[in-house]
Each structure stands twice: as structure tokens, then as C-alpha cells.
Amino acid sequence: MLTQEFRNVSTYNDIISEIASGANKVNEISDKAHLEQTVVSHALQNLIATGIVVREKAITDESNKKKVRYNLKDNMFRFWYKFVPDGMGAIELDRGELYYYNVVKPRLPEFMGSVFEDMCKYFTLFAGLSGELNCFVTAVGKWWGTDPVKRETTDIDVVGLDKMSRKAVLGKCKFRNEPIDKKIYEELLKKNGLIAKEYTVVQYLLFAKSGFTDWVAEHAEDDLVKLVGLEELYGGGERADWKNAAGI
After folding, report:
1. Of 36, 76, 156, 163, which has the highest C-beta tally within 10 A?
2. Any residues with CB less than 8 A from the CB of 134 and at least 6 apart, and which?
3. Distance of CA 61 to CAs 13, 36, 41, 195, Å?
4. Using one digit for the tens of pLDDT, what is the confidence trace for 86-107?
5. Which residues pair with 53 in a beta bridge?
6. How far from the centroid of its chain's Cα atoms is residue 54's Cα?
7. Cβ neighbours of residue 25 under 8 Å, at least 6 residues apart?
């Protein structure tokens, strides 16, 4: 596929490999791939144009040039570069199935984390536009930065904004086999105050693959904390609209 789009395939292959391994800034990609930053920047623009890479900004901090990340947008590329190169020996020996069950399958939750986050973002936008949330959400993204209290880097998986009334909803996504517990619940509520001060947080969303503990179910206030399991997240009917939009 890269050969069909680009001439210098090795350069693009190296850049994609570094992004897949966790490098998401131009200088990081440049250092690890041993390429000039101008070469990396030009290649990234081409990869964005072909839908392979996405340029992400921290929502509410879009003007901050330091808060820019490059990630793989195409999930086929993400899967390939995350798992296939290390397993080529096994695959070529016709032992791909063994490699999958011993190496790939145990790490699928790790791979699915960002995919699940995208699903949650589309849900938040759809639900906000449909009047199912406490504000009319018209923009959704992710936020990352420094927690001034803990003085450490942190992020918020889902931020939905009502830019007219300056209201926001914050979400946490967990694609794992254990239910969301009290600790995760309280961590999300402590995220209040991290995004731009002009926004008032009016609701919190907890998205879970495996449900919620009894404590969370009992303490979640319907008007403040919305619990979203797979059944609601990936329901039928009108949900097909945002599922199709998300390419799910």
C-alpha cells in the first residue's frame, strides 16, 4: 500500500514504525528514525493526506503548538506495525496462529484502547447533539497537559464541549476485563479544573467494556455521572449513524 502512494517507501516505513512504537512528536520521530525534521514534517503531511496518520491537538489548547501529537489513524496500519514485524519469523514458518495466541491476543486490550476511545468520542458527540447529555456537545477531543496539583503529566480521554454556553463533559474509557471501580470513578471527578477555565464541567462519563462495580453503580448520580456500558455504547437503531461515521 505504501508503494502505491509513495516513492521513498523506506522513509515512510521508518516514520510509521516509530509512531507505532510511541513516538508522536516531530523531534521524537526524527531522532528515533535518524531523519531530518524537515523530511519527517513533509512525510507526515503526506501521511495525513492519505488518511494513514492524524495530527491531534489538545482540545481547548488548540493554539498551543507544543501540544501536538501524530498518531496512526488507520487501524490496519496500527495493528500491522504493532504486531506483525516482530512475528515475521513465526509467520514465515507457518506458525502465525501460535504467535497470535501467545503474543497478540494477550495484548489486544492494549491495542484496542485507542479504538475504544474513538468509539466513546463518537458516542459523546452523538449523545450531546441528541440531547442525551447535560449540554449541547458540538466538539469532541482529548486533552493532555500538566496537573497543577499533582505536578505531573495527565490526560482526559474524552472532552465534549458546548462552545456556545461554555459547558463541558469529561469522560474516562476503560477497555479491560475488570469493571470500573471506585478509584477510577474518583480519578475522573478530580479532572475538573484541568481544561480551560472558561468551560464549566457539567457532567462526567464513564465508559466500560466490562461494566462497573456495585460501589460505582450505587454512587453514580444520574445527573452528574453517566455510566455507559457496551450495550448502550454499541446499541442499535440510531446508533448506526455514528457507528458508520466512525467506520466501526
Report:
1. 156
2. 167, 169, 202, 203, 223
3. 31, 27, 21, 8
4. 999 999 999 999 999 999 999 9
5. 72
6. 11
7. 68, 69, 70
> What is the reported pTM?
0.85
Backbone angles phi, psi at 145, to 5 degrees: 170, -155
| Sign of the CA dihedral running 95, 101, 105, 106 | negative
- Of all helices (H) and strands (E), which one includes residue 160? strand 152-162
3 state DSSP class of 188: helix
- pLDDT tens per residue across span 112-133: 999 999 999 999 999 999 999 9
Q: How far apart are CA 62 and CA 56, in angstroms?
A: 9
Distances (CA, A) of 5 to 46, 76, 126, 232: 9, 16, 34, 39
Q: Nearest 5 degrees, angle CA 82-CA 96-CA 103? A: 50
Degrees, nearest 5: CA angle 90-78-94: 15
